[in-house]
Each structure stands twice: as C-alpha cells, then as structure tokens.
Design a protein that fits this description.
alpha/beta; Rossmann fold; six-stranded parallel beta sheet; 16 helices; 13 strands; globular
Length: about 450
C-alpha cells in the first residue's frame, strides 16, 4: 500500500508527531496499534503510550504484520497505571521538538489526556473503538425528543444498553464522555462502504459542525501475511489440510467468560454439528496477562478432545485470528461480535454466527445480521440470561455451514470482503479518507 509522505519543506525531521493513548483492554489496544502502523506509513512518527504490561501484551499479540517493519513507529512508551501525569510529561517534551502534536486517544481515556488543552501546539482526536451503528443508536436511545425520522430501511428493533455494562462501568463511561469537549474531531475504525448511512446519521446528530468525523478503517491488515509468533504450533498447518470453506472458527474475544455448563453445551453442539472447527477456548483476560496462576482452565466434557480429534482442534492460548479468518479453509465464524472480530471477519469475507455477550456486541450483531445480512443470530439479546443449548449451537452451525441460506450469506460476505479490501487500496474510499485525515493534521 503506497502512502504519501508529509515531511514538510523537504526536512528530514517531520514537523508533526502523533501520540496514541489506548484504553488498556486488548480490543482497544489492538485497533490503535493497527492505526499506528497506518499513520507511521506516511512517514509520521507515532508514540504509543501505555502501561508496561499492556505494551508487552500488544507486542505479543500483534498479528497480520511485523511490528518491527514500521520504521516510524517509536518504541512503545511506558507509563504507570496513573497515566495522566506521565502522558502530559511526554506531550510537553514532544511539544518543543515538533510544530504540532496530534493526540489520538480512546474515548474512554479522556480524563488521561484532558491536559492537552494546556499545550498550545497540540490538538486531540477521539477514537471510537466500536461501530458507527452502535454509537448512533446509543445516542439515539438517549434522546427523548427525536430530532428527525429514521428511514424505513433502518432496523426497527435495536437492543437497548440495558444489561450491556455493569453499573460501575456505565458510570465510568459517562464520566469520560463529560470531558470530551476539547477534541478536534473523531476517528472511526470503519469505512463508508460498511457504515456510510450511520456516519451520515451521526453527522446529522452532531451539534458541532466544526468537529470533523473521519471513517478511516478498517485498520487491520487486509492481507494477513505478517510474522506470526503467537500461533499455537500446528493450527494453521491443520487448516492447510482441510477443504475450502469447511471449517468454522469459534472465538469469543478477550473479555468474555463462560461457566462450565455453557462450555459443555457449546462443546456438545459443535460435536453434534458434524462440522470441522477451530475453537479458541480461554477465559477472559485478567489484570496482568503474565500472571499465569490467575488463568482459569475451562473444562471440556470427559474424552471430548479424543472424540473430535479428526475434525476439531482446541486452542487454549492465543490464536492468530486474522490468519485463521483469511485462510481459504475457514467458512464461518462463531463470534461474540466484538468490533475487532466483526471487522476482521468482514475484511476476510467470512459470515458470522452472532452470540453477543455484552458492551457493543448486541448492536453489532444487528448490523451483521439485519443490515449487512452476512450472519445469523445464535442467541438474541433479550434471551441473554438463558443458557444456549447444545441443540441451538448444533442447528446454528449447520445452518451457517451447510444450508442454502448459509451459502448465500457466505457469497454475500465474500463480495463485501472484496469491496472493503478495495476501499483501503490506492484510490479506494477509505484510503482517500485516511489521506484526508493525514492532510488535515499536517496542514
């Protein structure tokens, strides 16, 4: 992918610098690390500020590209768990060496970067880690007197925020959003090909016409050919031996936990479906990923791995998701519908069996199944308190992988994937919007 360089006046030293401030959870870190690679490809130095543990996690889990290959990506900056002062100190140091500092921060890190307004040559952009669809309907839900009517083709049923977050985290989100008045614009990890309608609706809701909205995604590599140092030995080699579109990939992200009863139902459902599968079976991330004694071992039914050995593989550690989704043998994705997973699946043209658990996932599942029509629900959000039975798993996996309806979804997903990959290529719509953002911060 060719990138225009923005080193002004022929100087070797760029006049602008970007500082990334991610929220310390993998789904957020991952997206901004990918964005760092893209911005660095324009010849702009990028600093990545986070804690030691989470920076180490980012390096360990990067997939689809080689972390060492981005020459303008600076060493990941270490900051303590109390990030506000270390980040402000970094900004002050950089402000004397560059004409402009551009801070790109997760919307949940507003309290950490709020002192940016004290630095005259700095400006900040809020990064939204979820879909424009989810953000729009979260806003729409909170408005009592609706400012306009929605078109008839917009889904009528949208899951509410109820049950999506704990009360404590909901309060944290609200407090962070109260501090967002200093931002110069907002960045979305999406493209107008996927969510153009909802980007337009968000602009329509905005009360600040000067605040720019950029849809510059997807950030993840569209060809997963990078160094993979985290793959469980043999998982990709196993895929190489399978027929095209014959394997369903099963993964629920980094912040989802299942109890033993639900794991058992899922295991039996996969076994009875008769389909080949790769199942990433792991508990949710803990505060420190490298404290192994914190990890919970999820129990499978007795003798399960022996029974499915000829058509299933269990990955208990980290799996190279981009490479798995990009593999021609992968024909479906049983997913929680976190936005990273949705985008990676869309990019690689793989349909989704949606099993939303919390956060933005319930609304993402509606985008996938009703708007883009590249997936089906295994469990609707209103039934979130109910056990998903082995029968539901069996029937959904079979429908996704073997039915005519599943075939149509797979064809539609493949077509969308090709279009999205083209959008980030030279002269594609997302590439041009990224060029526009780079030109804007380099003005």
């Amino acid at each position: 992918m060719k990138r225009q360089k923005y080193c002004q006046n022929g100087l070797k030293q760029p006049q602008i610098v970007v500082v990334m401030v991610p929220f310390p959870a993998h789904g957020h870190i991952n997206q901004l690390l990918h964005l760092s690679r893209l911005i660095a490809s324009y010849g702009i130095p990028v600093h990545f500020a986070g804690s030691t543990v989470h920076n180490r996690q980012a390096k360990l889990r990067v997939h689809g590209w080689d972390l060492e290959s981005s020459e303008h990506l600076q060493p990941l900056s270490d900051a303590s768990s109390h990030l506000r002062q270390p980040v402000f100190q970094l900004l002050q140091e950089l402000s004397s060496n560059f004409r402009r500092i551009v801070i790109i921060h997760d919307n949940l890190m507003a309290s950490v970067v709020q002192d940016v307004k004290l630095i005259p040559n700095a400006e900040s952009y809020t990064f939204l880690s979820v879909s424009a669809f989810t953000i729009f309907f979260n806003k729409w839900e909170s408005i009592i007197e609706k400012p306009f009517e929605l078109d008839s083709d917009v889904p009528r049923y949208i899951p509410s925020r109820e049950g999506s977050f704990t009360p404590e985290f909901e309060k944290f989100i609200i407090n962070q959003h109260k501090l967002l008045e200093f931002e110069s614009g907002r960045l979305f990890n999406t493209c107008r090909l996927i969510e153009g309608r909802y980007m337009e609706l968000l602009s329509k809701l905005s009360t600040n016409v000067n605040k720019k909205l950029f849809s510059i995604g997807p950030f993840n590599p569209v060809e997963a050919k990078g160094k993979t140092n985290t793959c469980r030995p043999g998982c990709l080699e196993w895929l190489d031996k399978q027929e095209i579109e014959s394997v369903v990939y099963v993964s629920f992200g980094t912040v989802t936990s299942m109890d033993d009863e639900q794991v058992k139902e899922l295991a039996i459902g996969l076994e009875r479906s008769g389909q080949k599968f790769i199942w990433v079976l792991r508990d949710a991330d803990k505060g420190d990923l490298f404290e192994e004694d914190e990890a919970k071992t999820l129990q499978l039914p007795e003798g399960y791995e022996e029974r499915v050995i000829n058509r299933g593989i269990i990955v208990r550690g980290w799996a190279p998701q981009l490479e798995i989704l990009a593999h021609p043998a992968t024909g479906g994705f049983l997913s929680h519908c976190g936005w990273n997973s949705c985008l990676e699946s869309i990019t690689m043209g793989v349909p989704i069996a949606a099993w939303p658990m919390h956060s933005d996932q319930p609304k993402n599942s509606i985008l996938i199944t009703q708007v883009l029509r590249i997936g089906l629900l295994i469990r609707a959000w209103e039934h979130r308190a109910e056990l998903v039975t082995s029968t539901a798993v069996e029937n959904t996996v079979r429908k996704l992988m073997k039915s005519e309806e599943g075939k149509v979804m797979r064809e539609r997903a493949a077509e969308l994937g090709r279009a999205v990959r083209a959008s980030v290529a030279d002269d594609g719509s997302s590439h041009l919007e990224m060029d526009s953002f780079i030109a804007h911060i380099s003005r």
